[in-house]
Amino acid sequence: MGNQSHVDVLIVGAGLSGIGMACHLTRECPTLSYRIVEARDDLGGTWDLFTYPGIRSDSDMYTLGYDFKPWASDIGIADGPSIKAYVVETAEEHDVMRHITFGRKVVAASWDSDTSRWTVSLQHLGADGEPTGETSSITCNWLQMCSGYYSYTNPHRPDFPGEEAFAGRIVHPQMWPDDLHDAADLDGKKIVLIGSGATAVTLVPALADQGAHVTMLQRSPTWIFPAPNRNPIIVGLRKVLPETVAYRVIRKINSTRSELVYRQSRKNPEKVKALINKEVRKALGDDFPMDPHFTPNYNPWDQRLCLSPDADIFEAIKAGTATVVTDHIDTFTESGIALASGEHLDADIIVTATGLEMLALGGVTPVVDGEPVDLANTFTYKGFMYSGVPNLATTFGYINASWTLRADLVARYVCRLLNKMAENGSTRAMPIQDDPDMARRPYVDDFPAGYMQRSIDAYPKQGDRDPWTAAQSYKYDRKVLLGPDVDVDDGVIEFSSPVRQPAPA
Q1: What is the pLDDT at residue 116?
Q2: 63, 247 in Cβ contact below 8 A?
Q3: If pLDDT is split at 50, 70 and 90, which confidence band does 483 have?
Q4: Which of 106, 207, 227, 382 is least surrounded by CB atoms within 10 angstroms?
Q5: Alpha carbon separation from 163 to 159, 160, 216, 336, 337 (Å, rounded)
Q6: Which residue range is the domain that position 11 belongs to?
Q7: Using CB atoms within 10 A of its CB, is residue 73 exposed (0-12), middle (13-18) or buried (19+)?
Q8: pLDDT of residue 400
């Protein structure tokens, strides 16, 4: 980190959100100094961490891309390396790389009201991700947490009965080994993949393409929507419009369409079910039974809807290189998995695509004037700040749309807030929630997915009125965060200055 021990803005995380935040600062707050600290040894976040075969976006790149950086391809669902390359290119174009310090994990953050500064403690990590024994600290006026929403080191991994008896390999997608990537490693292998979420739906056709026979073992089915990866409307728009105009139009079309589908799934779920079932039936053909493998017992968007670009998982099933089994595990055996039904699945490799563990603020407990803050006892302000916590914001995307749609909105609003502070000479901005009777709702409600329900109690609460809500609506957020009549000095954020200035360095 050189001699730089203080910056105006410290960004935690060099993934999609952190790089985007840095670019927005460069564009909208050019006089502010900033630094990014990243625990890993490269940027990209999710798109650097996950390396399993077939890793790809689970939403289209015209909305997962930044609002200021067009996605220059007709391919809507992109693979992981392409997404990382896009993030790297964006960082290079905005001169972000020199502001990143890799191998630094935030372990503590303490606010001092007298100086209006955060002191952030850093643990140094080696290229292997292990602590080197060194530590350091940096101070900042504004702390922007862009560390994502899940643990990079501890995936959700339930214990299964009899695991120790299995003679083959057990692999979790978050910790994918280097020697299981191509046909030389996978050809002819019998793989049982436990799970049916987005990771499983991605891995099944990718592993089958490398010559493995894959059995997707699910307790219950998931809604999977097959769609062409090259949308002819998008291809046409990109041909006739300038790139930036086409990107803006496509972004609006896709965000509107995804929000419409989500709303319909809440208001008229049977209609959405019928639409998905029609496309699945078309993709599978008439010879494969829909029930029980593709008839979920919940409504679409009760859990995240999985995409199958070019119907790849259904093509693998039709080709006989992939199989779906809907059953419960009785026990692992030496040669595979025994099921509750009495069947046995032979396996050389078992993949546990069992999900993530959510982690608020990267596991850091902020301390304000010596008092640790229990986030669960705070209210979220507009979905990105916390009541009673000054000069700290976090980026948390949508569960029903692309993460970056919201990351861009939050970054733009934070930049406006920082510019307002410079304009009025204040050094602290803190949301004040002074109604003891305000209703308390989960930070994300109406979304019963397991990974969310396991950890949502540790997150801040929503209230029953703005600005203490966290909407899952890009259209609504765009209005309340960036609308022409929106004033960041809204009477809820308290702007103030420190009692004393820090002594000269």
Answers
A1: 95
A2: no
A3: confident
A4: 227
A5: 8, 6, 18, 10, 9
A6: 6-152+357-496
A7: middle
A8: 86
Cross-strand bridge partners of residue 494:
430
Same domain, 371 and 384: yes
pLDDT in the model for residue 3:
45
Residue pLDDT, tens place only, 337-376:
999 999 999 999 999 999 888 888 989 999 999 999 999 9
In order of 38, 81, 343, 345, 439, the CA distances from 129 in angstroms are 11, 21, 41, 36, 42
Q: What's the rounded Cα separation, in Å, for the pair 285 and 270?
A: 22
Residues 264 and 335 in one domain: yes
Whether residue 264 sits in one domain with residue 136:
no
Beta bridge partners of 10: 35, 143
Give the CA angle between residues 452, 453, 459 to the nearest 5°.
Answer: 70
Helix (H, G, I), strand (E, B) or coil at 156: coil
Whether pTM > 0.85 for this model: the answer is yes
Q: β-strands 117-125, 329-333: how paired?
A: unpaired
Four-residue CA torsion sign, 143, 148, 153, 159: positive
Q: Say if residue 334 is in the same domain as residue 361.
A: no
Crossing angle of helices 312-319/269-284, nearest 10°?
40
Strand (E) or helix (H) holding 247: helix 243-267
In a domain, 502, yes or no: no
Q: Which of 405, 406, 400 minimizes the C-alpha distance to 382?
A: 406
- The CATH number covering residue 414 comes to 3.50.50.60
Where do we find the tokens 């996605």? 71
Q: Give CA–CA dist 410/371, Å, rounded.
A: 27
* pLDDT digits 0-9 by tens, 159-172: 999 999 999 999 99
